[in-house]
Amino acid sequence: MVEEKKQSKKPVGKKKAKKAGPIGIVHIKCSFNNTIVTVTDEKGNSVSWSSSGANNFKGTKKGTPFAAQITCSKAVQKAYDMGVRQVSVKVSGPGPGRETAIRAISSIGVTVTSIKDVTTIPHNGCRPPKARRV
Is the pTM for the entire model greater than 0.85? Predict the structure, then answer.
């Protein structure tokens, strides 16, 4: 007896486009070596993201303001296509691309409601090394 194998084929159709709410949060992490931008909804679920390395910047060019501008505009453009129209911005880190990244958001046509610096600040710093004995 020959057993026939049943192959279950999924119906082929268009993928459902993801939709996000009209309000979002843009998290910009600017270090000296890289810039990472994540756009989330109000609950914190990621809508889109981009980094300098993902935009074909290599080495020291990843930390430049131009790389931060391109990175931020790509991430926010993806979110804009999903329906995000109003964002609040949270900037973290001491990198050189902080201001240019924020300017890139407004150039796309997304309304910036607030800008907040969430860079961590040590209150008493690290414990100093023990005294050197000679």
Answer: no
